Amino acid sequence: MNSLPPLTAPVEPDDALRRVAFLLERERAGSYRVEAFRKAMATVRELGSAAVAKHVGDGTLQSVPGIGKSTAGVIGEAVAGSLPAYLKGLQDKAGPLVAGGEAMLARVQGDCHTHSSWSDGGSPIDEMVMTALELGQRWMVLTDHSPRLRVANGLSVERLTQQISVVDAINGHLGGAFTLLKGIEVDILDDGSLDQSDEMLGRLDFVTASVHSKLRMNKEPMTRRMLAAVRDPRVNVLGHATGRLVTGSRGIRPQSDFDARAVFEACAESGTAVEINSRPERCDPPDELVVLARDIGCLFAIDSDAHAPGQLEMKAYGAERAERLGIDPDRIITTWDVDRLRGWVEDTR
After folding, report:
1. What gap in Å lies between CA 321 and CA 284, rounded to an integer?
2. pTM > 0.85: yes or no
3. Which of 175, 221, 255, 271 supports an S-S bond with 348, CB 3.0-4.6 Å?
């Protein structure tokens, strides 16, 4: 997996706006700032280059709905043939996300946990795919949320059916250069059952299962809940196992209380991979639990849990942790090619 090379002048206005949005997402800027640049990008593409140039020449760009002072500045400088100063500033400070883990990150080919605007992500599916391609990924699982997670606009059976058709169409256009796998981040319900119909789960290529509700459940029922999920043959990855938050705008949240040894032993027996969630605010599981899962013999998945294109590169954080904690790269399913991944999924169902 690579980093995106810096843009240089001349640059098209929509490309400049898109890269600004990516870099803002990468540094975890406020969503309102990112939204402004992505909205302006869509507006520019809709207007067309001739109309944009005319607005720039007339000084009327900010009269166009969806374009404000900052975005107009980027557009105007790009139309003039310069590298926009706002973009240059972001590029100049966009160093590596973390020191260490470079060798592990170079081996990462895919991602088992990503979201789009179909649930609580910030960009459409094709934008997530395009960015993953640019970063050198070979495959990605689309894992929007399941229906009971209403706060995240979880997908009903009907909407998931529609999304499956969209994924098939995207793969048809990609011509084998990249594979988008049909998936879900399915909520683990209180009794350990999965928040989607058996029929729909059977139509998916891949399932990541996570606890999102009643995170403070007592240890014994939480352990039973998680054991039931990781032993389900349809579940491929246990997502953000402890549910903790260690930093960020949502505040701090302690990890759930469960018998980690029992859960990870069940993962190892059932062939369910343990996610190393790369989001800095999660850093989940904590190091000591990653080591426990390593020693038990679990497989792992270094995942971005990306809700925006600029977050796909956050796998660098997970790669640093995996390398530092001595995880064999061959035990990390996101280093596998897509054919090996598919074969593993088939063998464990």
Report:
1. 10
2. yes
3. 271
Phi-psi region of 326 (alpha: psi -120 to 50; beta: other; left: phi over 0): left
The phi-psi region of residue 348 (left if phi > 0; otherwise alpha if psi is between -120 and 50; otherwise beta) is: alpha
Q: What is the pLDDT of residues 122-160, one digit of tens each?
A: 999 999 999 999 999 999 999 999 999 888 899 999 999
Give residue 151's pLDDT: 87
CA angle 155, 160, 165 (to 5 degrees): 150
Domains delineated in the chain: 13-92 (1.10.150), 102-348 (3.20.20.140)
Q: Which residues contact 32 (CB under 8 A, 6 or more apart)?
A: none
Q: Is the peptide bond before 6 cis (omega within 30 degrees of 0)?
A: no
Both structure tokens of 97: 């996300």
Instruction: Provide DSSP, 212-230.
Output: -S-TT--HHHHHHHHHHHH
d(CA 221, CA 330): 33
Amino acid making up residue 157: V
Closest CA to 176 of 114, 133, 131, 116: 133
Q: Which pLDDT tens digit goes with each residue over 239-298?
A: 999 999 999 777 899 999 999 999 999 999 999 999 999 999 999 999 999 999 999 999
Largest Cα–Cα separation, the chain = 68
Distances (CA, A) of 260 to 138, 266, 267, 268, 285: 32, 10, 10, 12, 10
The tokens for 175 are: 């011509």
Structure tokens at 16: 């400049």
Q: What is the pLDDT of residue 71?
A: 97
Q: Which is nearest to 113 in space by CA: 230, 330, 275?
A: 275
Structure letter (DSSP) for residue 245: B
**Segments of the chain scoring below 70 in pLDDT:** none
Q: At what angle do helices 315-324 and 287-296 cross, to 10 degrees?
A: 60
